[in-house]
Amino acid sequence: MKHLLSVTDLDAAEATALLDTADRLKQALLGREVRKLPTLRGRTVITMFYEDSTRTRVSFEIAGKWMSADTINVSARGSSVSKGESLRDTSLTLSSMGADCVVVRHPASGAAHRIAAWTDRDRAVTGIHTSVVNAGDGTHEHPTQALLDAATLRERLGGIAGRRVGIVGDVLHSRVARSNVFLLATLGAEVVLIAPPTLLPVGVEEWPCRVSAELDAELPALDAVMMLRVQAERMHGAFFPSSREYAIRYGLSPERAALLPDHAIVMHPGPMIRGMEIAPSVADAPSSAILGQVRNGVHVRMAVLYHLLAGASS
Amino acid sequence: MTDDRRGGPADAAGQVTPARELLSAADVTRTIARMAHQIIERVADRETGSLAHAVLIGIPTRGTILARRLGAAIAEFSGTEVPVGSIDATLYRDDLRRGPARALAVTDVPEGGLDDLLVVLVDDVLMSGRTVRAALDALSEHGRPRAVQLAVLVDRGHRELPIRADYVGKNVPTARDEQILVKFTEIDGVDGVALARTTGGAG
Amino acid sequence: MSLVIRNARPYGEEPVDLLVEDGVITEIGAGLAGPEGAEVLDGAGQVLLPGFVDLHTHLREPGGEESETIATGSAAAALGGYTAVFAMPNTDPVADSEVVVEHVRRRGEEVGLVDVHPVGAVTVGLEGQKMAELGTMANSRAQVRMFSDDGRCVHDPVIMRRALEYASALDVVIAQHAEDHRLTVGAQAHEGVVASRLGLTGWPATAEETIVARDCALAREAGAALHICHVSSARTIDVLRLAKEQGVRVTAEVTPHHLLLTDARLTSYDPVNKVNPPLRTAADTEAMRTALAEGLIDVVATDHAPHAAQYKDTEWAAARPGMLGLQTALSVVVHTMVEPGLLDWRGVARVMSERPAEIGNLPDHGRPIAVGEPANLTLVDPDGVWTVRGENLASKASNTPYEGMRLPATVTATILRGRITARNGEVA
């Protein structure tokens, strides 16, 4: 594995191997006082975040540090980027400094793909192989989020194949939804997208999932429901009449949560807007796997770094 | 040794000469029994004869199976259930960057940890000693045992580090290009130890 | 100044010799001997066509010289077989006054490799608010015959109506970049399966179709000539068919890239494929080809849009849209239209020379290859094959989507009023 840019780069075996590794890493760290593994000592991981994010950035930083990699965070604000340096120059600069891995989050879809193309092309000159991890590119994908969601499903439900997962909300603007639909399909789950027509992408009929506008009708048959945040900052307007109507029709209220089967879990990639897409009591209930998702995030990201950096550079 | 010695003659695309049996299934059982007695004798507390401070930790995959077998034999002979666990040494190996990223194995340290216990580290084959070195590093991050001893089914020589086993099932001098093939019923369907030589080919 | 062209096949038909004197074809026959000192061009049995006319080119000068200049763009045009190009006004300053259009025209004359005809802006500064001085530009030394806000749509229907009415008295054509900007806010790629999978905001085909329908109705009422730039959607063809049946004076162009390339190319996120209007689906390219063959789309126009590396070697959203086109146009037309039998060489002459010259009102170009006609000619090797390399093209920029592709047909020579401007891949 050279880069992790999109979940569609992983087949079922590779995705399962990543999840297995995450499990083993979790086991290896269990009960220890010293939460550190020496495996990536001498490797340098740089996170380059052009969008505000605390949870993902910190998660990657912890993952790198627990594997003993030298982990450095760069944020766009206050860096040469604010002086007008291009994405290409910034990433090649970091690569030339010796970054074995660049973890990038950027508002432009495809940014991670371009960075991988530039660093691969330059490798002939610099001799440095830099792996690129996509930590979220525009509205395209967020592969490690889908992996940690899959890890959480596996942990709470005992498996993924054949399970029914509902993804609710602003699918149109959600990279989390895209990554989840395609990864869950690869792993054999049945996915249904539930959203008003204005928040579904054109061509969603071609995706490996069902589509529905009726949340109440779908809930009783689901093993897991994933609530998406309503993304005010990505919208140019007119996708639904008001926040109130959205919360009424698509929010996971306590009444709606009661429609779920007993074993079903509630997930959310965070950050949540309590009271909008999810009621506070539902977010904190035993069926909520939200904190588990966050915990799994660190192990999954450790597994990704392991698979990219522990072996020989490809 | 764990994953890096290959499987049986069938794996090497016909370039391995037929294996010579070193231990039959019955030999394996007897050897494990003898080792169990040796462990009991050396590990038991001088005054009380208790084994309560001992724990068996196997190096996956076959080391863990051997550790369980030893644990069962020890329980049979002494009446004491010594806890059995496993420690994956992969993350501590010194040769990770020589090949693609390796799959990790199970780490399962018994409840209560390792502090102040006598750990008997168990593996199927001892050769360079590097795997054991990695396992010792892994162990040290789970706690501070009072002592660590090493039990192996086969010692085939060619040490590259100053490591020696406390309990050896069988010493087998080998050439570098030979392979020791250990089989356990739990995963191979049959018990046995054989010696094979690779002639050319990847083996 | 005399030129003898030996053994060339006009429109791919019977081989003949031609004698050109003082920029005019004076004799066509067999075994012609020119006067003493006449230059000789060996036609080698290749196809002779009227010189190509591009109704839609961006030469970037003034203001964008890091990407292209009138000199480098003219060289690319000559090498591509063009004897006349229409230079779009989205320069800096915008060509919305006689000063700028006269400058562009004069600069083209100085370079002398192709006739550069400036297109004037429809509105001042391309801002869509106030009509530009169309009359002054039309009567200037630049003799502007086509007006466009290309890059932007003339969005306000009242402004478009007035411009069409005003233009009808000047006998000029208004060329519309059909895009309802309110439907394409933040758009990056064709709105469809590929864009939604790649997380790229969609540019719906309806944004093009609705403006075309509106403007055809306005042109009908004004009795004015309307030209639709870079048609990209099959739906727009349906609108054009109806309008033409109604007798509306509407013409349309398609770019070579919209004949060949689809949004399937976008998966690498390489911005060399980013263009406005965007690459659409295979069904759309098929519809473009059929419409061009039938004449529903009248001409091929390149929308040659050079961009320096810093504008293209970026993440997709930050890249400027546009592709080079002048040197690859003929090859793409041969590949998509001639090879599958949709057009013969007469058809190529029609869509790349005759119809564009008519629409652009150029009396000297797109003429029949006959005695007495101006010698604006292109000699094409129909069996030639070449590999496209951006760095080897004459344009200052290298943003060609065909990088590394082997394409059919090469331009052997381009002749502008009897003078060879390009020969065997070199500018004369």
What is the topological layout?
The complex is a heterotrimer of chains A (314), B (203) and C (428).
Chain A: H1 12-29, E1 44-49, H2 55-66, E2 70-75, H3 87-96, E3 101-106, H4 111-126, E4 131-137, H5 143-157, E5 164-168, H6 175-186, E6 190-194, E7 210-212, H7 215-218, E8 224-227, H8 243-250, H9 254-257, E9 265-267, H10 280-283, H11 290-309
Parallel strand pairs in A: 1-2, 1-3, 3-4, 5-6, 5-8, 6-7, 8-9
Helix pairs in contact in A: 1-5, 1-11, 2-11, 3-4, 5-6, 5-11
Chain B: E1 20-23, H1 25-43, E2 54-58, H2 62-78, E3 84-86, E4 118-126, H3 130-140, E5 147-155, E6 167-171, E7 178-183, H4 185-188, E8 192-197
Parallel strand pairs in B: 2-3, 2-4, 4-5, 5-6
Antiparallel strand pairs in B: 1-8, 7-8
Chain C: E1 2-10, E2 16-21, E3 24-29, E4 39-50, E5 52-57, H1 70-79, E6 82-87, H2 98-111, E7 115-118, H3 134-139, E8 146-148, H4 157-170, E9 173-176, E10 189-190, H5 193-198, E11 202-203, H6 206-222, E12 226-228, H7 234-245, E13 250-254, H8 257-260, H9 282-294, E14 299-300, H10 309-312, H11 329-338, H12 345-359, E15 377-387, E16 406-416, E17 419-423, E18 426-427
Parallel strand pairs in C: 1-4, 5-6, 6-7, 8-9, 9-12, 10-11, 12-13, 13-14
Antiparallel strand pairs in C: 1-2, 2-3, 4-15, 15-16, 16-17, 17-18
- CATH class of chain B reads Alpha Beta
Number of strands of chain A: 9
What structural class do you assign from the helix and strand content of chain A? Answer: alpha/beta
Give the tally of structural domains of chain B. Answer: 1
Number of domains of chain A: 2
- Radius of gyration of chain A from CA coordinates: 20 Å
- What is the fold named in CATH at topology level of chain B? Rossmann fold
Question: What do you see in this structure?
Answer:
Chain A has 314 residues and is an alpha/beta fold. Chain A folds into 2 domains: 7-141 and 295-309, 3-Layer(aba) Sandwich (Rossmann fold); 143-293, 3-Layer(aba) Sandwich (Rossmann fold), CATH 3.40.50.1370. Chain A has 11 helices and 9 strands. Chain A has helices spanning 12-29, 55-66, 87-96, 111-126, 143-157, 175-186, 215-218, 243-250, 254-257, 280-283, 290-309; strands at residues 44-49, 70-75, 101-106, 131-137, 164-168, 190-194, 210-212, 224-227, 265-267. In chain A, the strands form 2 sheets. Chain A has a 5-stranded parallel β-sheet with strand order 7-6-5-8-9, with helices on one face. In chain A, strands 2-1-3-4 form a 4-stranded parallel β-sheet, with helices on both faces. In chain A, helix 1 packs across helix 11 (290-309). The longest helix of chain A is centred in the last third of the chain and has 20 residues, at 290-309. The radius of gyration of chain A is 20 Å and the shape is globular. The relative contact order of chain A is 0.16. The mean pLDDT of chain A is 91. With 203 residues, chain B is α/β, with parallel strands linked by helices. Chain B has one domain: Rossmann fold (3-Layer(aba) Sandwich), CATH 3.40.50. Chain B is 25% helix and 23% strand. Chain B contains 4 helices and 8 strands; from the N terminus they run βαβαββαβββαβ. Chain B has helices at residues 25-43, 62-78, 130-140, 185-188; strands at 20-23, 54-58, 84-86, 118-126, 147-155, 167-171, 178-183, 192-197. Chain B has a 5-stranded parallel β-sheet, sandwiched between helices. A 3-stranded antiparallel β-sheet of chain B has the order 1-8-7. The longest helix of chain B has 19 residues, at 25-43. The two termini of chain B are 16 Å apart. Mean pLDDT of chain B is 90; it is low at 2-12. The model of chain C has no long low-confidence stretch (mean pLDDT 97). Chain C is of the alpha/beta class and 428 residues long. Chain C starts with a strand and ends with a strand. Chain C has 2 domains: 2-47 and 373-383 and 406-427, Urease, subunit C, domain 1 (Roll); 50-359, TIM Barrel (Alpha-Beta Barrel). In chain C, helix 4 (157-170) crosses helix 6 and helix 6 packs parallel to helix 7 (234-245). Classes of the chains: A alpha/beta (314), B alpha/beta (203), C alpha/beta (428).
